[in-house]
Amino acid sequence: MAGTEDLEQAARRIVAALRAGEGLSVETAQELFTAGVTAYAARRLAGNSGSPLTQGHAATATDVAITTTAMLEDVNIAIFELGLWQSMGGKK
Q: Are 72 and 79 in contact (CB under 8 A)?
């Protein structure tokens, strides 16, 4: 199993490749995104309130809206239900 340092180096190489315009297969991109989402959720549930985006990120509001909408559709949650969950204290 790879150590934390190995994983950090691999992640940096992937980010650099993506920023340079090198693509990943759809399946690999989905696996990376899913792993990132579940890791971020686990950290939020453990009390880490850090942002899911890096400081100075290049993601636009449109990027976030498109991605969030697709994620909600994939897990069959309507925006109304998300708002209800957040109002009931589910927001971390």
A: yes
